[in-house]
């Protein structure tokens, strides 16, 4: 026990050095880092690729522009040297906090630089011209994002610190958006064109994901409890739910359309309530069916993981079966159940995008419109918020699971 405590104290002091000598030890311990070597190679390759794409109009062929040519005069060479220095730095075995701060700073610099590109490339009076990040930018962002993620994993941040880190990242991203620094980029021009309906589609995306999850919890939790208590029922329910899970999402949405259209045609009340062959109804039902397996299986697994001694002690205290379930078993099984909820929510946030094909709305509206118009920046307008939403949900629910397990810092 004392050994574990000693390790924890060591991790805390190394994560927040207060003395310059401690920082020097943290910043470089000698030798080469394998991940750093790979990411340095990726960074070097990225610096040889176009940093930004220039299009005379929205759907014209793009012309790639390298880093030095894409930035205003006097900024290109310092930026190039900065990224070379950062790549050389991560080659060495640095402390995780140093690497996290370095990668975070590099990502912020990337955000600043890409916002400067439109002013350097856009011809005067050419309102139809478009500027977008190119392969070099995305590879640099990928490289430093991997370094940042690896450093955060090595620091083993507790749930509270992970939530604080998420809040900081969201604040930085919001600052770029609110300041207008990215307004010259083509994805922001697409947003300006579709801004009237963007909030509504964002709300629809969240409603579909959370609504289907809520339905799965209402049905899946009691079903999971029943499966835990009856092996025979479990042997029937879980295979059926596994089969449902294997049906492709587009096929599932298609299967929902015909019966719902018939119901709407024969029962006007259902049609008035919004039950139709297209729209939100088939999307919610399909997502609900996909959500059942993780909820049911994790509920059964969580209850099975409850120590028998705890249940026996509760029975010995005179608790009824119902009291044992709600006061002992479910609270102890909650971290496992919440893990299933996390799986469902992240899965549904992605699957809602496909629902736009049947009129479900959400961010998929921009994805499929962009594909149809061959406008890659309109596709990004739908994919970037979807990824951000799924990433945020995963971090928040992971933190909630750890807090339930007793982790605090």
Describe the structure.
The chain has 409 residues and is an all-alpha fold. It has 2 domains: 19-156; 191-404, MetI-like (MetI-like fold). 76% of the residues lie in helices and 3% in strands. The chain has helices at residues 2-15, 20-27, 34-46, 67-70, 76-90, 96-121, 135-155, 159-179, 186-229, 231-246, 249-266, 268-272, 280-304, 308-316, 321-354, 364-373, 376-404, and strands spanning 52-55, 63-65, 130-133. It has a 3-stranded antiparallel beta sheet. Mean pLDDT is 87; it is low at 1-18 and 21-28. Pfam families: BPD_transp_1. Residues 202-397 form the ABC transmembrane type-1 domain. Keywords: Membrane, Transmembrane, Transmembrane helix, Transport. Belongs to the binding-protein-dependent transport system permease family. It is found in: Cell membrane.
Mean pLDDT: 87
Describe the strand arrangement of the main beta sheet, using strand numbers: 2-1-3
- The rounded distance between the terminal residues' Cα atoms is 19 Å
Based on helices, strands and strand pairing, what is the structural class?
mainly alpha
Organism: Labrys monachus
Transmembrane segments: 35-55, 67-88, 100-121, 127-151, 163-182, 202-224, 236-261, 273-293, 325-345, 351-371, 378-401
Membrane topology: Multi-pass membrane protein
Main location: membrane
Throw out a few tags for this protein.
MetI-like fold, 3 strands, MetI-like, single chain, 409 residues, 2 domains, mainly alpha
Brief summary of the model shown:
The chain folds into two domains: 19-156; 191-404, MetI-like fold, CATH 1.10.3720.10. It contains 17 helices and three strands. It has 409 residues and is mostly helical.
């Amino acid at each position: 026990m004392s050994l574990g405590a000693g390790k924890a104290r060591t991790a805390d002091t190394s994560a927040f050095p207060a003395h310059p000598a401690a920082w020097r030890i943290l910043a470089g311990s000698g030798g080469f880092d394998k991940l750093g070597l790979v990411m340095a190679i990726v960074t070097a390759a990225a610096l040889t690729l176009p940093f930004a794409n220039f299009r005379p109009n929205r759907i014209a062929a793009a012309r790639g522009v390298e880093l030095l040519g894409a930035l205003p005069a006097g900024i290109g060479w310092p930026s190039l040297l900065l990224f070379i220095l950062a790549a050389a730095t991560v080659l060495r075995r640095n402390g995780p906090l140093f690497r996290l701060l370095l990668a975070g700073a590099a990502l912020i610099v990337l955000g600043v630089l890409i916002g400067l590109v439109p002013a350097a490339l856009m011809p005067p009076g050419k309102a139809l011209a478009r500027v977008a990040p190119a392969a070099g930018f995305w590879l640099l962002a990928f490289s430093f994002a991997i370094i940042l993620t690896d450093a955060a994993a090595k620091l083993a941040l507790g749930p509270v610190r992970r939530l604080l880190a998420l809040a900081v990242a969201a604040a930085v991203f919001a600052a770029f958006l609110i300041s207008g620094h990215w307004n010259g980029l083509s994805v922001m021009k697409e947003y300006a064109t579709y801004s009237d309906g963007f909030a509504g589609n964002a709300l629809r995306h969240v409603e579909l994901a959370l609504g289907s999850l809520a339905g799965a919890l209402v049905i899946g939790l009691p079903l999971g409890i029943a499966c835990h208590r009856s092996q025979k029922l479990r042997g029937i329910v879980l295979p059926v739910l596994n089969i449902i899970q294997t049906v492709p999402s587009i096929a599932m949405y298609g299967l929902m359309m015909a019966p719902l259209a018939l119901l709407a045609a024969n029962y006007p009340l259902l049609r008035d309530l919004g039950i139709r062959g297209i729209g939100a109804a088939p999307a919610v039902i399909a997502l609900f069916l996909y959500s059942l397996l993780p909820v049911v299986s994790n509920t059964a697994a969580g209850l099975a993981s409850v120590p028998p001694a705890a249940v026996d002690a509760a029975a010995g205290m005179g608790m009824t079966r119902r009291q044992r379930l709600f006061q002992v078993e479910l609270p102890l099984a909650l971290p496992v159940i919440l893990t299933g909820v996390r799986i469902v929510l992240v899965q549904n946030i992605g699957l809602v995008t496909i629902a736009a094909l049947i009129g479900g709305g959400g961010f998929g509206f921009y994805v499929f419109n962009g594909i149809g118009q061959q406008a890659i920046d309109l596709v990004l307008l739908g994919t970037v918020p979807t990824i951000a939403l799924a990433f945020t949900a995963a971090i928040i629910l992971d933190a909630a699971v750890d807090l339930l397990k007793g982790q605090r810092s």
